[in-house]
Amino acid sequence: MPLTPDCPCLPARDKENNTVRDVWFLMLPDTVLLDVTGPAEVLKQSGAFRLHYIGPEAQVITSAGLSVNHISPLPPSLPDSSILIIPGVINSDRTLSSLASRIAGHWLQGLQQPIREGRWQLVCVCSGALLAAQAGLLDGYQCTTHHSIIERLRRQAPLAQVKDNRIFVEDRGIYTSAGITAGIDLALFLVSEQVGPRQAMIVAREMVVYFRRGPEDPQLSPWLRYRNHLHPAIHRAQDILSREPEANWSLDQLAGRVYLSSRHLARIFREHLGISVREYHEQLRVAIARQRLQEGLGIEKSALAAGFSSARQLRRAQSRQQE
């Protein structure tokens, strides 16, 4: 199913100046499909953006093996207030040295001035930051990328301020993000900035994206952290806590659900994860409270929604995690 240059969605208006925002996806061979479709769906569902797909080739084969057709040629320039999105690519060593990438890189070099003047916004998803770095677009800016290529980005952009362990980073109109799902988080953040938090929340709920993370959140959130193990009983316990973190789970109740003694569960949890069951549960609750605060609830209601008895208990938990 081909993606067409212009999205059929009804464009809405920017909350600041009542103008349509144009979004341009730079399409290259081996583009990670979800780096395009994830942000594109968020922006489309917000009703606030008009989408275009451009590149040095009229057709590309994506990471999933699907062909994307009807890609428009690289324009000499973009309208003011445009958003340019550079998705990530697989086999970045090979792809970023291809003829198509070299053509795109040369085109990007010509965009430095309008980007630095703030006339356009630049968004890089995952390894898309490497192409931007090659073109010198990240020099002097704070940025990030997927943790597996963060050191490569540092070498590629020695004049940039590369940040570790970030979902995404924004610096003067340049946005860079980590892996695939971080592109969705970043797109939701753009909707929040351009249209408003309420619309971003509506889109997140429609897409069943439960947590809309912010630029200061670490890449490995509590929902993903501590999953780098192979113990099935601990994974079952983590799944139970993740589904109902606001519930008052006792160690005995949780152990019974995974068919272990409470003493054994506590021992293997700390052995494999390095933290206690209580500490893990508390991290999930703090994450929920943070999200509720971002959605506009007061601190007391956010604390109760996350399973804390009071805002004071939430603040104590936050303090423990910062130690």
Automatic annotation (TrEMBL):
Residues 235-323 form the HTH araC/xylS-type domain. Keywords: Transcription, Transcription regulation. One of its GO terms (molecular function) is sequence-specific DNA binding. Signal peptide: none annotated. It holds the Pfam family DJ-1_PfpI. It comes from the Bacteria. This is AraC family transcriptional regulator with amidase-like domain. It comes from Biostraticola tofi. The lineage of its organism: Bacteria, Pseudomonadati, Pseudomonadota, Gammaproteobacteria, Enterobacterales.
